[in-house]
Amino acid sequence: MATSEFHPIERAAPDSGVAARLLRVIEAILGIAAAVVLAVLLLMVLVTVCLRYFFSAGFIGAEDLGIWLHVGLIALGAPLSLNSALAMRLDVFVKMLPESLQKVTPIGADVFTVLSALILSFGGSEIMTMLGGVSPTLGVPEWIRFGFLGAGGALILVVLLLQRIAEGRILSVLLSLAVGVALYAGIPHVSLDLDWPPSIFLGLIAAVGLLLAAPLPHAFLAAAYVVIAFGSSLPEPAIVSATVTGISKFLLLAIPFFLLAGGLLTASGVANQLVRFAAAMVGHRRAGLAQTTLLTSVLFSGASGSSVANAAFGASTFQPELVKHGYRPAQAAAIIASTSVLDNVIPPSIAFLILATATNLSVGSLLVGGFFAGGLMAICLAVAIHLTVSEQVPLPRANAKQRWQSAVQAIPAFGLGIIVVVGIRIGIVTTTEAAALAAFYTLLLGIGARLGILSLYAAFRQAAVEAAAIGLLIGTAGPFAFLLAVDDVSGLISHLTTVLGGSALAVILLSNVILLVVGLVLDIGAAILLFGPILLPAAVAAGIDPIQFGVIIVVNLMIHGLTPPLGMLIFVVSGVTRIPASELFRAVVPYLLALLVSLAILCAWAIIFS
Fold it and tell me: Are 304 and 442 in contact, with CB atoms under 8 Å apart?
């Protein structure tokens, strides 16, 4: 999502310079700490793999230690993403308001952040005082894990205050703080006896947060707390407990490792070898450079697992060349954005990791399904590019020797995909271990490419902060999903499918409609976490293969990276190329239609073989 452009209400105060300097110091410390924690996590998993395979040994508590460190990583990294795209702010509606109101809405968004920070801080502290016992594997008090997130809440509040003071918005942040504190103190003493289930108010309050451009995880957390006044069965300590439980899964460690692998692959220059290989294979064909962009995206998908990373890489690498070869700037950017959809479908895929976490589906089976779906989507995009592009300056045809040389040079990048997919599928390593090996492999590539300490640190820091933002979203979706389950939203979906006939076709149609609607306003991770567990039981009851249905969920939601108002991939490419997002939304229509055709084929396949 794009970050909001805040307009200061006050003139810069003399204290803003001091606040800015203090903010830089705190962010530097947090960045170093988060990068170090990620490095320790990587080392720990690698040591575990080596002990098991070379010495048939291990150490007790390795998995629990990894989980605890991951919670600590989220606590350290979450404050660093407050004012970036990682905050997952939906600012489209705010920008449609008159300028006078645009100056006020950030105050409301900050209220959600203040309230969330207070919930994590004081809710975490309350759990720490209530919780006894010692971890049987680590030998340390159990409350420490919850204390990490409590400290993270305090850090979010401190960073928010310093950011706003540095921007000269002292009065507005004080107002946000006052309103947030008042809500936090007053909600437990309010009881509204209404006929509607709490989940209705939960969705409405979260929607208000989204409309105000509050960070998505903060909108979720604040909404879960406010609905206590509407009869929610989840008190404050339980909200924080559900958040910590949601991120306390060893599988989720694969996310920072895959992000690190993608970052190091780009920094080391190996990603450019994929570009040369793709150009040698298809560059001479009609729309050859656009087809090269597509093939590079397919190949890069097997390494990064992140559509955002591929969109940023493609926008900086291919956009100038496409325009130079006669493409309209908006069309070139639209091609880059649409091909980036493949990264969260073709393995390794962070979206499939999140889905497996939410539904307990097999990661290996989902990855195999992702290969099929990604290949189909790539074919549909290739056809759309062929039909919509008439290139002015074709690329020269590569001879056999040049193709062979480019293939040999790209072998290091291909090796990464083999490590991940083959290792997971045949059961040599777990998903988290495969991700750690991939990160270590790209680290060696980076060292071989003579990357300096600062470049390596930057890759670790970026991966840690991105993983923290995703982790916080996963955690805060936990209380939200719990309240949806309490109100039996899944049962309502099952009832609707029964009314529609209960067939596989009815389930597929209803599920796609629901996903197409929620995907317009929800991040893909949040949509998977909230609606994956709700829709999957109905699909299984209708005889649909759960793996095929899981792939349909991910493909459906990934397509929303190109649709307004959210359009995350559109905004990423727009930010790099400086082309207005409104132009990209129009230019991407042919490629969006091609992806919808691939979704229809996947759905038909699932229905036929159900």
Answer: no
Q: Which residues contact 312 (CB under 8 A, 6 or more apart)?
A: 572, 576
Instruction: For residue 419, give the nearest of 431, 404, 409 by alpha carbon.
Output: 431
Q: Give strand ranges (E) for 238-355.
A: none
Rounded to two decimals, the pTM is 0.81
Rounded alpha-carbon distances, angstroms, from residue 589 to 135, 212, 390, 401: 54, 28, 17, 38
Dihedral angle of Cα 127, 128, 134, 137, to the nearest 10 degrees = 80
Residue (of 582, 460, 587) closest to 34 by Cα position: 460
Furthest CA-CA distance within the chain: 76
Strand partners, 141: 134
Residue 141 φ then ψ, to 5°: -60, 140
Task: State both tokens at 581.
Answer: 């997002």
In the block, which residue shows the tokens 């936990």?
478
**Residue (of 86, 79, 219) closest to 159 by Cα position:** 79
| Token pair listed for 89 | 């702010």
- DSSP code for 422: I
Contact 304, 262 (CB under 8 A): yes
Number of residues that make up the chain: 610
CA–chain centroid gap for 110, Å, is: 22
Ramachandran quadrant class, 305 (left: phi over 0; alpha: psi -120 to 50; beta: rest):
left
Q: What's CA 317's distance to the chain center, in Å?
A: 22
The C-alpha atoms of residue 164 and residue 12 are separated, in whole angstroms, by 10
Mean pLDDT of residues grouped by 10 in the chain (610 residues)?
Answer: 40 68 94 96 91 79 90 94 73 76 87 95 88 79 87 94 91 94 93 82 88 88 93 88 88 85 78 68 67 76 60 72 80 89 82 87 87 93 88 65 73 67 69 84 86 91 88 85 78 74 85 84 78 88 92 91 77 76 87 95 90
537 CB-contact burial (10 Å; exposed 0-12 / middle 13-18 / buried 19+): middle
